[in-house]
Structures are given as C-alpha cells and as structure tokens.
Structure prediction request, 423 residues.
Amino acid sequence: MLFYDHLNVTGDGQVSRRGFLASSAAAGLGLTGLLKTQAEELKKRGLSVILLFMNGAPSQFETFDPKPGTSTGGETKAIQTAVPGIEIAEFWPKTAEQMKEIALIRSLTGREGNHQRAQYLMHTAYAPSGSVKYPSFGSVIAKELGDSQFDLPHYVSIGGRPAAGAGFLGQQYAPYAVADPNRMPLNSELPRGLTPEVLKRRLALIGKLEQEFAEAGGEALVADHRALNEAAARMATSPHLKAFDLSQEKASVREAYGRTPLGQGCLLARRLVEVGVTFVQVSHGNWDTHTNNYEGHKRLSAVVDPGLASLIRELKERGRLDKTLVIWMGEFGRTPRINGQAGRDHYPRAFNAALAGGGIKGGQVIGATNATGTDVSKRPVTVPDLFCTIYEALGIHPRRQNQGNGRPIRLVEGGSAVKELFA
Prediction:
C-alpha cells in the first residue's frame, strides 16, 4: 500500500483531517515529518525510469495498432506476438517476442498537433506557457526518487536534449546530455595532476567568491551554479563513472541491441539504472513521415525494435525490470488518411504508447480505435491520465505540489491513473 493511501489523501492531493490526526497520533509526527518519511521511503525503493522518446511522432498504424486490409491501413501487415490475440506491425518482430512484459495503450488522445507544443506536453503534462517553465517529468522523478548523495546525475538524456528541462525545479534536476553513447562523457574526468582534495579546495574558494554576489540579490543564480559545480565534481570522482563505458560489455550483447546510437543508448540506459541513475531518456528522431511513411517506418523501426526488445529482455533477465518502468512513446499519432506523397500527417486524436516493468501488467492492450483508426472507440486515455499512471506506478502522488513562480503547481492537473495497467 502506498503511503498516501493510508494517510487518506483526498482527490486534490491534500491529506484529510482524519487521516492526518490518525497518522500523527500513531507515529508521533507532524505533517512535515510524515511527508519526509514518505519521501525517504520512496527513495529507498530504488525505482527508475527509462523513456524511449520518438521525436517526430511515429504512426500508430506502423507500430502497435496496425489496420491491415483497410482503406487507412496502407501497406503495413500485422504479425503475431508472444501473447495470443495481440498483433503489432510487421516492423517490430523482436518487440513482439517480449509482449508478455509489455502493455500497449492504443487509445491515447490529445489536442496538440504542433511538434514543439506536443513534445513539451508529453514531457511535462502541461501545454507551454509564457509565464511558467514547467519541469519535465524526468526532473520531477529525479527530485522525488533520487538520492541527493548519489554521485552521478539522476537524469541523463542520451541522443539529444529533451523538449523540457528542469524548469522551476532548478539546475540540480536538469538532464545531463550524452550526445554519443559510444564515447565517455566529455570532460568527465579530473585533469592530470588535479586531485579530489585540490578540487574540493577550489570549489570552496569559488563559493566564497560567489557569496557577495549572492547577498546582493543573485542567490538563485549562485545556487544553480553551485549545484552544477558540485554535481560535476561528484561525477568526476565517482567510481560509478565506468557505467558510461560500453566497451566493458560483450560484443554479442552490443550486437543484440544494434550497433546504432539508439541501440547503444538503450544499452547505456540499462547500465545507468543498474548503478543507481533514476531517469534516463533515449531519443530517436525523424519520425515525421509526411512522405514515404511506409518505407520511413520500416527503416526507423529496424533501429528501435532490437534496442527496445533487448532492453526489456535484459532488464528481466538481470532482475531489474520490476524496479524499472520502461516507456516508449512519441508526441502524437499520424493521420489515418494517406496523403498524396504516400505519407501520413499529424494526428493527436488517436495514438499509442507502450509500457513495461515497474509494476505494469504486461501482455495486455488498453483501449482501442475503430476499424479504420479514425477515432478512439474504447477506453480513451488522455495525456493527464498517462502521467497520473506513470507517477502512481512510481509511488508519487500525481497531485503532489511543487512551488513554481511563487505558487503551488501540481504534478498533473486532472486525469486519473489507468488502474488496469497495474498487476
């Protein structure tokens, strides 16, 4: 049972008076102490998230909701998976073998059809706003689940920067970007002759020099700068830094993931969560197939399929899948109608996602679209619903609030978790 369950948290994320009094009397703690205990217990669980984000928006017809033999299905055929009755597009044969661990959502629905706005939405649960810089859910999860004493970044982004950063949470929860998973991070090691003790003294000196600026009104800037310096120093002296070195893996393992940036990024993600990194995003682009949709998806899927499948398989084999939530998604779907250039255009009304691990019950499909894929016909899942589901899978209450721009802001506004997804 989650901590907030027996605290009797109301629908808006607040603790009821009865729940508070009962828990306080039992534990002899105030509300602050109770919430601190909850946070500490959550961090001890060692949960993590790996997000495979498909920039440009993959087609649901050519991924996990094919419609062969229909006017909208195009050339794409369906194949059987390891779960009888569940079929996916022909381009994903290795993923099909792992379907017992995967839950498909075929009824995602949204309103944002612009790439930048939709990517921001699918990273923050909020549409872009001129007045508020919302944090990505990677930053939120790093804050909620990450141990502050851990010596690697709790949020690592492989293959490109996410659509949203740490926002009002501050730089200490910002993603650490790794451009090439095949190379060790640049400038991650101490220069020759510089010892950890000397580095510590230099940082202390910088702190003293910055103090005057902080007292003159630059406290927020100094805090961000110090957080970055301290994180870099911990990383440079960390024994966990070797997790970034893929040369330590057997050639056969690397081949199984695929010798591509995406495939090796998935392998790196597995290595990072095993040593304690909380959130890893692996990005893959060029899914905006307004032309030659079929050939484009055939080529792109051939890169992602072995990476996704090997990631899930290895996490399972190594006993890590139950504590790692794997998410595959893009920013929206693509039109049922095939345009004059053999492509599909933007379509937020109906699209799909895949989840595995982290307490998710695999081997099932949530929701459905109609025969031609033009509309959701069963169990619609909104973007807020998806985020509520992700947070609740991790034990984080989706109505939890953070301070942003001088006011409390919930992690998710509206929506409810898809309870059928949980084992």
Notes: DSSP finds eleven helices and 17 strands in the chain. The two ends are 13 Å apart (CA to CA). The first strand starts at residue 48 and ends at 54.
